[in-house]
Design brief:
8 strands; 8-stranded parallel sheet; alpha/beta; TIM Barrel; globular
C-alpha cells in the first residue's frame, strides 16, 4: 500500500472578523471532506485530510457572517461529487458547487449534477496533478452547452506555458488562487502580468484565495497584525484591473496543509480582505454582487 501524507485539520477556533460582513456575503471556494465513512476518499488521492463535514463549515458561517457558499469538490474525493451534492442539499439555496469531471461523465450525468446545484467544473493545468489541454478541450463543448463556469487551477510556470490555449478558452473562466503567484515574486512576475492582461477580457475572472499556500509571510510578526500581507499588492492590482470580476474564497478547511502554524483562521482571512479592499462598496462587489451574478444567487 502506498504511503499518503495526512494533512492538518482546520483551525477549530474560528473568530469573527473585525468588521461586519454584508448580507449575502459569499465564500466562493470551500471544500467538504467526508466524513469518509459516508463519502470515501479517492484511492488515488495525494493526501488524506481529516473529516470536515458540512455542519462544521456552517459553524464557520455562523461565526464570520458568511451566508452563501460555493463548494468545490476536493481532489481527495477525485471525481466523486456526492460529498458536494450532499452539502448543497444540506445548506439549500444559498449554496452552489464546482464539480470534478472526467471522460466517464455522460451529458445526462452532468445535467444531474447541474440539477443538484453544480454550476461549473474545475480543471488543472499543473504538473503535480492530472490535467491537460486535451482533457480540458474535450470538455469545452459540454461546459458551453450547460452554461457552466470553468474553474482553472494553474501554477505560474504552467500558466505561462499554456498561455496560448488559455487565451483561446471560449467560456467564462475563473483563474483560481491568483494563478498561485507567490507574494515574494510580486506584481512584476510574468505570470501576474499575464493574469492582468487576461482580465482585460470579460470572459476571465479571478479568485482571491489560498494565501497561506502562496504567501512568504505565513505568520503575523507583530501581535495583533495579520499574516499574508505580502499578498496585498497582488490582490489590489487585480481589484483595480477588474473590480466587477474578482471573487473571494476561504479555501476552508485548508486540507493540504502539513506545517503546524500555517493553517489560516477565517477571521484573519476576512480581515485581510478588508486591507486588500478598504472601500466598503468594493468589498460588497467582491463578496456579494460579483458571486451573485456569476453563480446565480438571488
Amino acid at each position: 500500500m502506498r504511503s499518503v501524507p495526512v494533512s492538518l485539520p482546520p483551525d477549530p477556533n474560528t473568530r469573527a472578523p473585525g468588521w461586519t460582513l454584508p448580507k449575502g456575503a459569499c465564500d466562493t471556494h470551500a471544500h467538504i471532506f467526508g466524513p469518509p465513512h459516508l463519502f470515501p476518499y479517492s484511492e488515488n488521492r495525494r493526501y488524506t485530510p481529516p473529516a470536515a463535514p458540512v455542519e462544521h463549515y456552517q459553524n464557520v458561517q455562523n461565526v464570520t457572517g458568511l451566508s452563501r457558499a460555493v463548494f468545490v469538490t476536493p481532489t481527495a474525493h477525485g471525481c466523486d461529487n456526492r460529498v458536494i451534492l450532499s452539502a448543497i442539499a444540506t445548506v439549500g439555496a444559498s449554496a452552489r458547487g464546482i464539480a470534478n469531471i472526467d471522460s466517464t461523465f455522460s451529458e445526462a450525468s452532468l445535467r444531474t449534477l447541474a440539477e443538484g446545484g453544480m454550476r461549473g467544473a474545475r480543471f488543472h493545468l499543473m504538473k503535480d496533478r492530472p490535467g491537460s489541454e486535451e482533457h480540458l478541450r474535450d470538455h469545452l463543448p459540454v461546459l458551453e452547452k450547460l452554461g457552466w463556469i470553468l474553474d482553472l487551477h494553474v501554477d505560474p510556470p504552467d500558466f505561462l506555458e499554456h498561455e496560448r490555449f488559455i487565451r483561446s478558452l471560449p467560456t467564462v473562466t475563473i483563474i483560481d488562487h491568483l494563478a498561485r503567484v507567490r507574494g515574494k515574486d510580486g506584481v512584476d512576475h510574468p505570470a501576474f502580468h499575464l493574469l492582468l492582461d487576461l482580465l482585460k477580457n470579460d470572459r476571465f475572472w479571478v479568485k482571491l484565495c489560498s494565501f497561506d499556500k502562496t504567501s512568504s509571510v505565513p505568520k503575523a510578526h507583530v501581535p495583533g497584525s495579520l499574516p499574508y500581507l505580502d499578498m496585498v499588492p497582488l490582490a489590489q492590482a487585480v481589484i483595480e484591473a477588474a473590480p466587477d470580476r474578482v471573487i473571494w474564497g476561504s479555501d476552508w478547511p485548508h486540507g493540504n496543509t502539513f506545517v503546524p502554524g500555517r493553517t489560516p483562521n477565517e477571521g484573519d482571512l476576512l480581515d485581510l480582505l478588508a486591507v486588500m479592499a478598504p472601500e466598503e462598496k468594493i468589498r460588497h462587489r467582491i463578496l456579494v454582487e460579483n458571486p451573485a451574478r456569476l453563480f446565480g444567487f438571488q
